[in-house]
Amino acid sequence: MVKLISQPARELRQMVRCLELYYRQGRSQKDIARAVGVSAATVSRLLKRAFDDGFVRVELDLPRREELEAGLIERFGLRDAVVVAAGGRGDLKAELGAAAALYFEKIAAHGMRVGLSCGFTLYETIRQLRERRFRDLALYPLSGESTLKLVDLFPNTLVGMMAAKYRPHVTAYALPVQHLLSLREIERERRRLLRDPEIRMIYEAAQAVDIALVGIGMIGEETPGFCALAESYGVSVKRLGQLGVVGEINYQPFDAAGRIVDRPELRALARRILSVEGGRLQALSRRADRHVVAVAGGRAKLDAVRGALAGRFMNVLVTDDDVAAALLRARA
């Protein structure tokens, strides 16, 4: 789709001609240069400018399973669902990220507040967003958590990545990162930090975003993120399983019924210094004017996704057809 805006007439005609030949006829830039009577470098510049300025709308033709999407919406009371083919053309996380990026661009609007949790699938989502698509977004991390021994795709990191997509028309915030092992220390540090008006404003805004993009973490050996953090608190993957933990969302551990697992040995782990808690995600999911979009797929995450659905931590699910079919079979 070509959108005409104020441009010098000659350059505009050249740009439209290049777009027609490149996108509709599939011709090479060298062929286009000969047809239009300009250099190949000029063709490249015009195509890039057209893309950067929003003249071109690119839609990926990802496999969608509409019947599974409808089934998930009806069975789990979701606002929406997106299902991609598990045996698609590439890495599943990249496929999920592409689908989630397209969905975000469908529901987002200028001036919205957006919250991000963590994980590699969200990294893929942000990587595939189109640059400068929106203006005046405010971006918030849904947690300030980190570890001392592992640099991972934490919320503050992903906020920075997403901000780069929309620069300069974006405001991005961070939450302080602390690594404290004692629940008493955590509670004391939270009170101290929230006496700072700016930190309090960021923390409160993160709990009231218009769109929250979250991953769903599985519980397994050598799993980065939550499981690595748990190990740093002396809670092994085996012990998490014994406590009934099947997954986590924004560092909140939950069981198969979707209940937050609130056990003494997990409290310092789950009650982060500054983090949007599971109950707040549930409250946002119940609001008709909010989107909580969970992006997760792969057979290994089936139990975690099922538990997250049971807990109603999201109102939109982006997943693959293997997981979707298994979820619907289990509840048939």
Structure description:
The chain is of the alpha/beta class. The chain folds into two domains: 9-52, Arc Repressor Mutant, subunit A (Orthogonal Bundle); 66-330, 3-Layer(aba) Sandwich (Rossmann fold), CATH 3.40.50. 46% of the residues lie in helices and 12% in strands. The chain is built from 15 helices and ten strands. It has helices at residues 9-24, 29-36, 40-52, 66-76, 92-107, 120-127, 155-166, 183-193, 197-206, 226-232, 237-242, 264-270, 278-285, 302-311, 321-330, and strands spanning 80-84, 113-116, 137-141, 170-172, 211-215, 217-218, 247-249, 252-254, 291-295, 316-320. It has a seven-stranded parallel β-sheet, with helices on both faces. A three-stranded antiparallel β-sheet has the order 6-7-8, covered by helices on one side. Helix 7 (155-166) links the parallel strand 3 (137-141) and strand 4 (170-172). Helix 2 (29-36) crosses helix 3 and helix 4 (66-76) crosses helix 15 (321-330). The longest helix is centred in the first third of the chain and has 16 residues, at 9-24. The chain starts with 8 loop residues before the first helix and ends with a helix.
